[in-house]
Amino acid sequence: MKRILSLSLALLLCIGASLSLASCKDKTDYTVGICQLMKHDSLDQATQGFIDALNEAMEKAGKTVTIDMQVAGEATLCTTVINTFTAKNVDLIMANATPALSAAATATTTIPVLGTSVTDYVDTFKGNIPANVSGTSDAVPFADQAQMMIDTLGLVAGDKVGVLYCTNESNSVVQYNAVKALFDAAGIVAEAVTFSETTELQAVVNAAADTYKAIYVPSDNTVAQNDAIVGTICEEKKIPVFTSYSSAICYASLAIDYYELGKETGRMAAEILLGTKTVAELEIKKLTPAVVYNKELCSKLGITVPEN
Fold first, then answer.
1. CB–CB of 195/167 below 8 Å?
2. Which CATH number fits domain 29-138+257-277: 2.60.40.10, 2.60.34.30, 3.40.190.10, 3.40.50.2300?
3. Backbone dihedral region of 10: left (phi > 0), alpha (psi from -120 to 50 degrees) or beta?
4. CA geometry: angle at 248 spanning 195 and 230, to 5°?
5. Read out DSSP for 62-109?
6. pLDDT value at 257 more than 60
7. Residues with Cβ < 8 Å from 195, sequence gap 6 or more?
8. Residues 6 or more apart from 285 whose CB is under 8 A from it?
9. Which of 21, 92, 115, 200 is deepest in the core (most CB within 10 A)?
């Protein structure tokens, strides 16, 4: 009887050990939460780049990662998404856009947080970036953008440019102030064309197209999500639109590749998860922007595309 009990106990222990080993083998090495502010091409590309680069790095290291990707839809819901990640105690949070980054930095000081599609980290955190925060910036040289508009459109002193952005996006306010100073220095009048709700956008753009010689759009997520409205109105009224991000509505842009921006962020995430770098050791990175012309739109607007 004792021998039977001993054998039964040994069998149960073996089965338990086997199940335990199987569970360990199936367990994912890391879990990453992604909070994307909203759906639009630039943010979608950044998220996809992040996922692709992170998966590639994990596979190369022989590790596995589970990615929980959530789209908040609007700024106020970013906190809700982030709170689900902190409750799960994920290994890292990727925050796509400034409101998502702000929510993540407020929610945790211990989980590593990487931002992407964020224009100005210093302004976002009033000069005090948290120790657990780093990432990539979509900032571009505003002076070069302003000069490109001046040169390609033949703007002269007294001409008026409208800068279109949503007042709910702090990164857009930063960009407005930067380009305004540059245009003002050239004697060109730059004025804010603002809205707070997307329902206001059509009326605001219609009025702007009747007032300004050109429209400048910073890296504004709300405008980008609805830029077909802007493009339709401005093309009909022959008003050129210059965007800080590549878009079908712009006659030209000096912009970054958001997919590559996301990939850079994914590589940073891999370094943190694999323990080769800490967040504090990773500087905020920027990409070199590229000049892009929409030849078809330039032709419709009578804008000459430089031969080079």
1. yes
2. 3.40.50.2300
3. alpha
4. 25
5. T--EEEEEEE-SSGGGHHHHHHHHHHHT-SEEEEESHHHHHHHHHH-S
6. yes
7. 166, 167, 201, 204
8. 135, 136, 137, 264, 268
9. 115
Residues found in the chain: 308
Rounded to two decimals, what is the model's pTM?
Answer: 0.82
Number of other CB atoms surrounding residue 125 within 10 Å: 14
User: What tokens were used for 211?
Assistant: 């007032």
Radius of gyration, alpha carbons of the chain: 24
User: Could you give the 3-state DSSP secondary structure of residue 257?
Assistant: coil
Q: Which residues contact 29 (CB under 8 A, 6 or more apart)?
A: 58, 63, 64, 65
DSSP strands (E only) in the chain? 30-36, 65-71, 92-96, 113-118, 133-137, 160-166, 189-195, 214-217, 241-243, 252-255, 285-286, 290-293
pLDDT digits (tens, 9 = 90+) for 218-254: 988 899 999 999 999 999 999 999 998 888 899 998 9
Task: Please tell me the distance from the alpha carbon of residue 103 to that of residue 82, in angstroms, as a whole number.
Answer: 7
CATH superfamily assigned to domain 142-255+291-301: Response regulator (3.40.50.2300)
Q: Which DSSP state fits 303?
A: P
